[in-house]
Amino acid sequence: RIESLSGLEARGITRVLPSERHGHSVMGYIQMSLLWFSANISANNLAVGLLGPLLFGLGFLDSAMCSVFGILVGSAATAYMSIWGAQSGNRTMIVARYFMGYWPAKLPCILNMILMIGYGTIDCIIGGQILSAVSGGSMSIVVGIVVVALISWVVAVFGMAIFHVYERWAWIPQVIVLFILVGSAGPSFNANLQNTGDAGAITAGRLSFFSLQLSVPVSWAAASSDFYVYYPESTKKWKVFLMTMTGLTLSFTFVNMLGIGLASGIATNPLWDEANKVSSGALILAGYGPLNGFGKFCGVIVALGVISNNIPGTYASALGFQVLGRYGKMVPRYFWVCVIVLIYFICAVAGRNNLFDILQNFVALMGYWTMIFVAIVLQEHLMFRRPGLAGGFDWTAWEDKTRLPLGLAALVAFLVGWAGAIIGMYQNWYMGPVAAKIGGIGADIGVWLGCAFALVVFPPLRYLELRKYGR
């Protein structure tokens, strides 16, 4: 009865056959960009921009440069992973089986679920903070968290059709109110803000903030194909890459520049400084301060904008339960959506006063494994797949363990990559021995060492695996 509801997507991880997909259209390609633009032009990503000046001590120019180039690298990785959805008709974590094997692919699946739950937690917190600030503190952050979680749950339960319609239009009010924020807060931005600390500290800050900015867009890499499975099999890969890259880059760059601008003005604007001591959401609302009541209305729109970011992650993580095994697959997708929403709602309530710590530690930590995963996929694709059925992949074998790679080489390379990330990571609770040597104070290079280790280890191991097992 539930699955008979109009607009509800009953399909889970089952492959979408070519005969079940819609046709080519210009709007279909535009929707690719709109989806990612709408999902990421949100306050949670704006909050990441704050960290350049506030946490890493970078000036306006250095923060902006690290942000732009980090976003470009991270967006390119996610855009690459997005090409497999239309080609295969399979979800990203099903596609992972073709690169890491049936059983080893469950490891990135679990990590991706944790990642998406983490971002759902961040979205709820920042949305709750802004709504609480709009009310002058009379409404608790918890009530705002409930609002964000509830709307995200409704759209994610119905699935792909409603999701695409929502993302097609949700960006419009966001763009309007964010441009209003530029006009309202822009005069207080300090474009002349300089770096703080000695040369070593500045270098360490640049490395860490660049890696953090890369980690945010690349966090979509393990889910990006999920939203293209209904596109025709003949969809051009370069078009998928270009449209995805465009949507990601424009949205992340815009909101991060706003975040950097707000952070740069704190030192010279006492009202912003006081607001920042309350929460990141209060700081965003303070940017609308000159507009009085209308500014609060804009703040509400910004708060509700995090829902667009929350929906795709909720959708993708719910599918992860079905990828993990046949018992999870037997349970409908919409039930797992309810579980995911409940989990990140509880996490958001528990961590509502620790947003900066979550942003700094969680986002970078999750960026490590996604870049390692992308590196393995890229090498398998370019070095070991021969031309043949569907470009070297038999997409009908998505559930057949005997026709998929064993994944031993990929698993070892993934774990070795993690070892590299561990010795290069820099977090509040742990500093790797290599990371500690940078700049005298330490810097986060975990994502780079992790990728390097995986890139070196995977090719010879995969060659041996093919020689011995033939798949």
Written description of the protein model:
This protein has 471 residues and is mostly helical. Helix content is 69%, strand content 0%. The protein has 19 helices and no strands. It has helices at residues 26-40, 43-54, 60-82, 84-88, 92-95, 97-100, 106-134, 141-158, 160-185, 199-218, 237-264, 270-278, 280-286, 292-323, 326-330, 333-350, 355-384, 408-424, 446-469. The two termini are 43 Å apart. Residues 1-6 have low confidence and may be disordered.
Which key phrases capture this entry?
single chain, about 475 residues, 19 helices, about 0% strand, globular
- The tally of beta strands, per DSSP, is 0
Strand content: under 5%
Continuous helix count = 19
Low-confidence stretches: 1-6
From the alpha carbons, calculate the radius of gyration and give it in angstroms.
22 Å
- As a percent range, the share of helical residues equals 55-70%
- Mean pLDDT reading: 90
* Amino-to-carboxy terminus distance: 43 Å
List the helices and strands in order.
HHHHHHHHHHHHHHHHHHH
Global shape = globular
Give the class from helix and strand content and strand pairing.
Answer: mainly alpha
The major sheet is characterized as: none
Offer a concise description of the structure.
The chain is mainly α.
List the helices and strands and how they pair.
Layout: H1 26-40, H2 43-54, H3 60-82, H4 84-88, H5 92-95, H6 97-100, H7 106-134, H8 141-158, H9 160-185, H10 199-218, H11 237-264, H12 270-278, H13 280-286, H14 292-323, H15 326-330, H16 333-350, H17 355-384, H18 408-424, H19 446-469
Helix pairs in contact: 1-9, 1-11, 2-10, 2-11, 3-10, 3-11, 7-8, 7-13, 7-14, 7-16, 7-17, 8-14, 8-16, 9-11, 9-14, 10-17, 12-13, 14-16, 17-18, 17-19, 18-19
